[in-house]
Specification:
Chain lengths: 445, 329
Amino acid sequence: MKILLDKVNVAGINSLDVYRANGGYASVEKALRKMTPAEIIEEVKKSGLRGRGGAGFPTGMKWSFLDKKSGRPRYLVVNADESEPGTFKDRYLMEHIPHLLIEGIIASCFALESNLAFIYVRGEFKWIINILWKAIGEARDAGLLGKNILGTGFDLDIVVHPGGGAYICGEETALLESLEGKRGNPRLKPPFPAVVGLYGMPTVVNNVESIAAVPWIVLNSGDAYSKIGTPKSAGTKLISACGNINKPGVYEIELGLPVEEFIFSDEWCGGIANGKRMKAVVAGGSSVPILPTELILKTANGEKRLMSYESLQDGGFLTGTMLGSGGFIVYDENQCIVRNTWNFTRFYHHESCGQCSPCREGTGWMERILHKLENGHGSMSDIELLWDVQKKIEGNTICPLGDAAAWPVASAIRHFRDEFEWHVTNPKEAMERNFGIREKIEVAV
Amino acid sequence: MIKVTIDGIEIEVEDGTTIMNAARKVGGKIVPPAMCYYSTLKGSGGKCRACLVKVAQGSAKDPRPMPKLVASCSTAAQDGMVVQNITSQEVLDVRRGIVEMLLVNHPLDCPVCDQAGECELQNFAFDHGLQRTRSEFPRREFDIIDIGPHIKLHMTRCILCYRCTMVADQLTDQRVHGVLWRGEKSEISTYIQKAIENDFSGNMIDVCPVGALTDRHFRFRNRVWFLAPFDAHRHCTKCSGKAVVWLRGEEIYRVTGRKDEYGEVKDFICNECRWDHFSKTDWIIEGPRKFEGWSVINANKYDKETVELPEHLYSKLDNKKWETFEGVT
C-alpha cells in the first residue's frame, strides 16, 4: 500500500497539470469547501499519524496544543532541513512530487487557521529550492495559494527559506531561531513552539513527510489511515535504505513490515550485496543505537522484529533501537564498527552548536578517543572513558543532539565491545586495515 | 505563593520563580552552582548545565518525577515540587562530569591568569572536580586579542556562557561582538576586528566567570588576593557610582562592580568610574567588602573577629587547617 509515493512514477508529476489530472489537490477542495478546521484536526488525531522527523510525536496532538485562543497569528513551519546521515527521504519526496507537500501544507494550514507557512529547506538542497519555487508559483497561478483560495476566503502564502547548512537547525527551536535570522541555537523549553514559536507566535513545526500524509487522511478519513500498519504505528513510512544492500533507495513501507523481509525481500532492499553476511543495522538514521544482526531480526524475547515504532523500541536501549527518521543503514561483515562510530561522532562534533557544555566539549572528546582507538593507539581504559563520557552527555543537554551523539557510541560499545578491544590488542592490524577501500583497489588492479 | 522543597528544606516562593532562585532564597550549600546564569541579565542561563538538579516530584498535582535532570536556572518551580540537589548522588556525579567537560578545553593556566582567585570555574572545579583530567588531547588554541582599548580576550579560557554578549545587548547601545562559528570552534569575537568602545563595556569583564575577558589596565599588575576590597561610591552622572575599590596600601589597583555572594553584579558601573578614577580622593570609602562566596579572596584577609561570614565558610577559612590541608576536600 502506497500513500505518498503512489504516483511518483507518473511522467511529469512535478508539474501542476499532471498532478491535478492524477487527483491532486482534491484534498484541498474537500478540506476548504466541506470541512471545518476542527474536523480536520480530529481526523488527523484519529489517524494516529506520528511525526516522521524522528521523535514520533503524534501529529494530531501537536496540532491541538497550538494556542488559538490568544488570537495571535499562527504559523506552520515545515522542517525540510534533512541532514541526518543515512536519511534522504524528504529530499526524494520534494524532488519528485513537490505538489504533494504543497497540498499538505494548504490542508494543514486550513486546519491550523494559519495564513503563512514556511518551508525551511536544507541549504545544500539548492536544486530542490528551485523545484519548490516553481511548484509554488504554479499553485499560486492556479489560485491554490495567495488570497481567497478557490473562492473560499482562505488566504495562504508559503515562504521557502534555505538554511545555512547546519544539522542543528533541524531541531525545531534552532530552526525557528535560524528562520528569524539569528544564530541557530536551540531554545530552552518550555515554552514550547506551540505557545511561543516563530517571532514569538504560536507555531507548529512538522516534518515534510508528516505534512505530505495529511492530504490522504483528509480525503480518506483518519479511520482508514489508522487501519494501515500496526495499532501504535499507523500508516506508511518512507525508509531510505542504504549501505551494503543490493537495492539502496527510498521505499514506502507499511509500518509493521518484518525487518527481515525488508532487508532480504527482492521487493525492498534485496539482500546483502556481494553475497556477504549482515553484521549490523542502524535502523533510523545515524543517531539511533546500532544493533547487531541477531537483535535487529528478533527482539530479546525472540519475537520477530517489525518496522514500527514500538517493535524497534522493544527492549529499550539495552537490546532495542528506534525508528527515528527512517535512515536504514545496513553493514556487512567487512565493515568496521569502530570506524563507523568514529565517523558518526565526527559528524556530531562538527555539527554541535556549541551552546551547552556537555555536548560542545564531549562530542569532540569522544571523537578524539575514537580516532585514537580506530588507529590503534588506544588502551582498554579508553573504552571505559568513552563509555563514561557518553553517559555524561546523554540527557544533560539542552536539545536532543547530545543524546543523538551519545547513543551510537553507547550502543556500539554495548554490542561490539569485542571489536573495540580488538583494536586495542591488535594495534598494527588496526592501523593497516583500511576498510572498504582496500577491496576496491584490488578490484581495480 | 507556592511551596517548594529543596533538599528537604521547604520554602515558599512566588509563582514563576525558578528553582535556582528558590534555592538562593534558602541560601547556603543547597544553592546549585551557576556558570552562565546571571540574574540581572535577561535570557541568561541554561547553557553550562552546572546547575542541573533532580526533580523527584513534579508538583502536588502531578507527582511524577521528571525523567531527566533539569537546569534549575531556567525551570520554574511548581507548587509541591520536590527537588534534590546535593542530596542526590546522580546530580553530584553529573556535576563532576560537567566540571570535567568544562575543563577539557580550558588551558588551566591559573598561575598566570588574572582571574585566579575570583574565578567561578576555579571555585566550581575545586568543589566538584577530579584531581586530574582524563583528557590527554591538545586543547583548542586561539590568539590573544585586544577587543577595544580596555579589554583583552583570551578565547582559550572562555566557557561560552554568553554573558558578555548579553551585557552588550542589554546594557550598551550597540553590540559589536558575538559568538562566531559553532561547536567546539565557536569563539567570542568582534566581527572583522571591530573595537568594543562603549561606556559600559567594562561590565563584560565583571560578568565573565573565567579569565577570558580581562582588564587591560589591571592585567599582571597584582594578584587579587593581595588586594583588599573596599566598598566605595562616588557621584556619577552615568551610573549608580556604587563600586568596589581594590587597594594595596594606599594605592587603588582597580575598580569593579559589587559582586554578591553568587558573583553577580546588581549595580553595573560605567567605564568612567572603572578606569578614570584611581585616586583615593575620588571615592568615599564605606568599609571592607564582605565576600560571602567561597573564594581565596577571603583567605588571609578577614577573620572571624572582623568579618561575619556564613558559618559553613569558616571551616575552610581556618588558617590552621589550611596549613595542614585538613580542611581541603
